[in-house]
Amino acid sequence: MDFLFQSIDGRVLVKATPVLVFVLGILAIAYRYYSAFLAARVLCLNDSNPTPAVRLADGQNFHVTNRWVLFGHHFAAISGAGPLIGPVLALQYGYLPGLLWLVVGVCLAGAVQDMVVLAASVRRDGKSLAEIVRVEMGPWAHAVASSAILFIVIIALAGLGFVVVKALGGEKVALPATMVLTPSQGTAFKKLDGENAWLVPAGATIQMPGDGGRFIRPEPFTLQVTDGAMPVSDSAPWVLPAGASQVIPGSSWGLFTIACTIPIALLVSAHMYWFRPGRVLEASLLGGVLVLGATWLGSFVPGSRFESWFQLSQGQTVFVLCAYGFIASILPVWLLLCPRDYISSFLKIGTIALLVVGTCLANPLLLHRPVEPVFASGGPTFKGGMFPFVFICVMCGAVSGFHSLVSSGTTPKMVGREKDIRLIGYGSMLLEGVVAVVALIAAASLDPRLYYDINVDLRRVPEFQGQIDRLHQELGQAGNIQHLTIAQVEERVEETLRGRVGGAVTLAVGMAQILTKPLEELGLKDATLFGYWKYWYHFAIMFEALFILTTIDTGTRIARYLVQETMGRLHPAFGRPAWIPGAILASGLVTLAWGALVATGSIDTIWPMFGIANQLLAVVALATVAVMLSGTSGRRYLWVLVGPMLFVLSTTMTAGYQMVVIRFRQ
Amino acid sequence: MMQQPATRLAGTLSLAATIFVITTVAVFLVFATARIMAKWSMKGDSESF
């Protein structure tokens, strides 16, 4: 029974592998029966109907593609960072609500939407969702849908960009005046060279002003104070003056590795188009090896003279990210976007396979509670209550409107046989659900203490400290069975982790833990394992950032086309995607819009907005295909579309209403 | 707690964006419902989706 669960301190802790196997079983049943029902009864897929790839073949956009290659392309295009980040953030409600929504949502809503929209586009000459709306519902509905799509894409880009900024950028977090820092017995504050900076030793006690709570920081951290401020003595309590702040350095290793993927993509592109045309596998292997090499090389950046080049503040990271999105949106697709997507799709599928195998081998305990009562009505990652916000937080792995843009974008133009729609539309969404479940498991296997150390914004610690203390008290020994403190993890990964909200860092730590554990079973010594942690962690950060940057370059381009299409009504030249001034102006406007949201937002403003917008796009997509179905003999099956649409509509509208009310109250 | 101007701006932007998206989708659903009802009441269904 040890394989299934373990009882610690009176609490039964479930293990990860049985959960994963159970979920895989349900998804297999859904694929075998429900997708077959959709294909045969609702969509009446028939291989004798020629697809647009056959009828309109032009060797460029319309081109019959092998079903497995197309499956890989479609999966790579739909899998952004959402399935990785959302389940990690939703863990504040416990792992069960997110897990249930993932399984039910992906089978009955997300995969249905992806498959039916793909079929709709295949039956409408590979038209985009907005064009299908124009054909089915007229120009007014098209205008409304197009503007909603544009806003939703911009909000999605802001949500994903924010995750990268929080994972890589440094910041200075203001500490309240009169906060008291007390070094632990035998330790002392240490003055650092240069600026007015001090190293606060590991184990220092922090007493917040007033009744803000008292807690211990197991890890050392850097404190910056105003000119001349210093403690009475190196080992005495220090009452902080006004203007003190904690310095969180940017991740130079992470940024270096991610920056390397751009020249690597250009090199892969040059290899495929100029040096050795057609040698796709060779170029892919080259890209994969170089990306792994960049991750290893990145370990030499911290402490080197290049460190300052890659150690950016959050503002600088936002600027660099915007510059990347802007340039990638203007450059020809074959130069940067396609080779980058290509490299990242290999990396995505490989890493996910590795993580599934790693989870099965490591079989970690899920240390969080199935349902977390302490944060049931809101917590550090999400302000709102479990209903409806767990459905908003967990989106891409369950149902994501963004996918409908892909299902009505490049994929329908490459489908060779109608029956392949089942594998490509329904199957790849199920795989995305698996990604989300694995991300949830990786985070749920982390010590809850560690989870909240990473996921509580430093500015908001006093707000949540009482609840976190209560949570640890209720969890007892079962909560910290692995006794892995943030200080130990920071030492292993060689990064500052506290307060790095946004989910990416938590997932990277969870992945590093899962991928290191099988090595532990092989009998590797602790010192060697510590060495592996930092590589797994930075590999995971690079993997997540690749997911996100792929979406940012593609998303900025999609939004640019939408803006150009609208501006084309004012002046015809703007409507031509190849017209450079129009492309620059439209890309600039789009980048400015999402960049402003990232620069000014926080995780609890951006992620809910992203979730609501993304799922409202799913409502638009489901409503559009419902309109199509209602005019056919398959309309008796309208419930397969209207059911999930009404459910998603109810959760998003409730969340939207609550968000607006919360904002007005502030 | 006093909010920073940037945080207030973010709050206002996210509020405006959320209201805009909800409104446009609500308007779109009115169009979609009307169209479904019109198609439902029409005779002579097409056989394919």
Provide a descriptive summary of the structure in words.
The complex is a heterodimer of chains A (666) and B (49). Chain A has three domains: 5-39 and 51-169 and 321-665, Amino acid/polyamine transporter I; 171-248, no CATH class; 252-310. In chain A, a hairpin with a 2-residue loop joins β1 and β2 (11-14). A five-stranded antiparallel sheet of chain A has the order 3-11-9-6-5, with no helix packed on it. Chain A has a four-stranded antiparallel sheet with strand order 8-7-4-10, with no helix packed on it. A two-stranded antiparallel sheet of chain A has the order 1-2. Chain A starts with a strand and ends with a helix. Chain A has 23 helices and eleven strands. Chain A is mostly helical and 666 residues long. Chain A has helices at residues 16-42, 52-55, 67-78, 82-89, 95-123, 129-137, 139-168, 252-275, 280-297, 307-310, 314-330, 337-362, 386-393, 402-407, 420-444, 448-455, 461-475, 486-493, 504-521, 526-567, 580-600, 603-630, 639-665, and strands at residues 5-8, 11-14, 171-174, 180-182, 190-191, 197-200, 204-207, 214-217, 221-224, 238-239, 245-248. Chain B is mostly helical and 49 residues long. Helices cover 76% and strands 0% of the residues of chain B. Chain B contains one helix and no strands. The longest helix of chain B has 37 residues, at 5-41. The termini of chain B are far apart. The model of chain B has no long low-confidence stretch (mean pLDDT 79). The interface between A and B is large, with 55 and 32 residues.
